[in-house]
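Working notes for the structural subgroup meeting. M.R. asked for a predicted model of this chain before we commit to crystallization trials. I am recording the input and output together here so anyone reviewing the notebook later can reproduce the run.

Input as submitted:
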Amino acid sequence: MNTRIIEHLSSMEFRMSASTQTIASEIKNSISRSSRNRKSAVQLLEKIAEAVGANADASLVKNELALLKQEKHEMEVQKKLAEALELSQLINLLYSTEMVSRPLNEDTSTYHNQYPIGSFICPLCDEMMVDPVAIICGHSFERKAIQEYFKRGNYDCPTCRQDLQSQELTPNVNLRSSIQEWKKRDMDWKFQAAVAGINSDDPFRKNKAFDDMQDLVDISEYAVKAAEEGLIPKFVESLKDTRLNSVAAEKCLYCLAKYCEDHKLQIVDAGAVRRIVKRMYNGETEANSVSILLELSKTETLIERIGNTKDCIPVLVSLLSNPNPDTSSKAKAVLQNLSSNTHFAVKMAEAGYFQSFVARFNQAAGQQETQALMAEALEKMQLKENSINDLKDKQFVHNLVHLLSSNSPAWKSACIKCVKKLVPYPKMVKRFVSDPETIPLLLNLISFRSDPLLKQEAAEILALLIEACQPPQFQMYQGLQELQSQHNVDLLLQFVAKFDCQFKVKFLHLLLELGNKSKKAQNIIRSNTDAVDNLFSCLGSDHPSVRKWAMKLIHCVSEDHPDGVPVPPSPGKETAINTLASILACSPNFEERSLAAGIISQLPKDDIAIDEVLRKSETLKAIHEVICNSEEEFGVIGASTNQDKSLLENALAALLRFTEPTKPQLWRQVGQLELFPSLIRLLSTGSSLAKQRTAIALAHLSRSTSLSFAETSIRLKQENSMPLLSMKKLFPNMSWCCSGSADNEILCPLHGVACSQRLTFCLVKADGVKPLLRTLSDTNSGVAEAALMALETLLEDHSTLSHSNASAAIVESEGVVAILQVLEKGSLSAKTKALDLLQKILNHSQISDALFQRCEGILIQLLHEDALRKKVALVLKNMNILPEQSSYF
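Returned structure, recorded in token form:
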């Protein structure tokens, strides 16, 4: 080529000089390097002009271009394609000086339509040869194509048709070398054209150049040249212009980023990260957008610049849910690379991605300051269920809890606030209680000298953990077992006694949650007499929260315990009961009143001193007020439905003490207050629990009347039928059916005497039979049993007349139908009581044939229930359906 260039220079009458060889060599090197640097081209032109004694100006360039184009055309006509290619390269070298503009109608890539030259094309497949081979006649073909030709049974040359004596194939090394050289020149030319296009102002040319360049820069040689030509800023700048092919531009940037670290730095310096992130933020994520960031993030020195780019991390987090798996996986890889920076791991968590946060936190084990800062940040974040799935990592929880052992109060505080943030989530609770360090470290914060606020926070966390645990877990985990030990429960009780109100509330809450889940803890609290005295002293506190939590704890350790409330010894006992009565009667807080009523209902049953204190107090009047207010559809201003319902239920539980048949001094107070009508109405309006307790109270009152009447009758018989006048003097408060008093004209059909309207109670006179029968339809546990117990008191009198009247009253109120419904749908205990009552009714009353048949059918079905078989058989025998010798007995 050098010889041809020199000959060309001679044809243009250049003076031959000693510098001619040097200039020709520079031209050759410039072309071979595909250099399009304007400065270099101008310098080369100046040397040529100096050599020929001309001025290096636009006129010189125009003249030379005209001559070169003419000669190039002549070479193409003569089919001297190699020479034409060399002249084209010289023309482009002159254009690169930018002294003359390239005509718009001149396509810099027209050469590509004329080349490759024909000798490079295989005649069989019409494609450029890659592995050219020659046959005997000397013609060359692509190896695979000629082999296929021979396989089809052909024995001549496809080009000259000469018969071949042999099908031997000889590699055409020279041709292959020429093709490879041509390809190299072709790519060089393509690169030069692409550079020119990218530097132009024409969007069409730029897009064509981007298309060509994206394939070239995938080759390391052209990646280097592209960077040397200063194209990286051009690629980045093109991402702003919607007219340009951003996909190809990003592909170029990706290839350059893959090549070397220097390219990555240039890409970041050119503002590519901000530009790419902005495009992704606007929903313009292309295939290579995340790929570029991934390549850049592999360089540690660039991580900070990438992560600090506005919106970068939130956008990458959003791409994790991208439907394209390649995009989402690459976004995750970028985040993983960035997560080596703690600040960026925190930002990822703030954006909703916690995997990197958890991993970084675990990596920082031993770096307590870093972990404390991360815990502090986590405490301020919004958490979702998918966040918890990452945060429940066993190692993360252990490392977080271990931070409580730090010597720094600030770090402990950050940790404990973070734990408090996580405890409301059940999955986290399981992790915390299963970690052997959690509860001991929290107890250490409480036990030893530490910030009072930390003690309170630790107590609150323990309460939340216990509240979220189930009783079986207290046997599974060592920490929970340790928490309910004698030492630790007594320690917590000491804090209740020693500290101020705010402390008392936290530790009362903790003890309450522990008592709710652990019978062992309940018994420890009950057995600590000093602690019990202190709890009751809290009832007189001026701080409402202290009173409330103290009452909750007392109620907790008393409920369902056979000994009831662990009251302090006298005189503290009397003071405590009067305080409870005062709260029930006077407190404006419904929850306090409800708790007071609940505790009163749990007071020891056989303590006469307690009965006397209650009789003298305003307790029964307060209960009466609650019951009356409940009839007004929860009409007490300021009370919510749930609060009022709980208060009523606990008030009725407390009332049961006043209705005990063995406590006449108390149940007579009930009669004096005329509570009976209100109780009957509650059977229709109250909750299931209220109905149950009301029915039990009515059963007590009804039994009290029966016992009182029976005792009176026995006493009269013992005194040989004392005259009526004497009996009236002996029992002035009792009304008698034979009395001529106008106030007592209505006789009780059940007892045969006129029941007192105030001091005694009769279900029949009070119209309580039908409401009780309606209550039998309530399938909630205990309601039907209580109603059946109340109805059965009508049949407890030994008088045959009384039994007949009671049975008739139940039958007339459609009681048999209600009892049969219990036998069909009730619980086992309800069915047992229903069978007892049905047997007594059928012994003293007649029922219709239809009802008799229905009763028979239901009872026969019940014969299949083992627990009821004997009772059912007995009823059927009394109905004359089963013989006495039946196998069911």
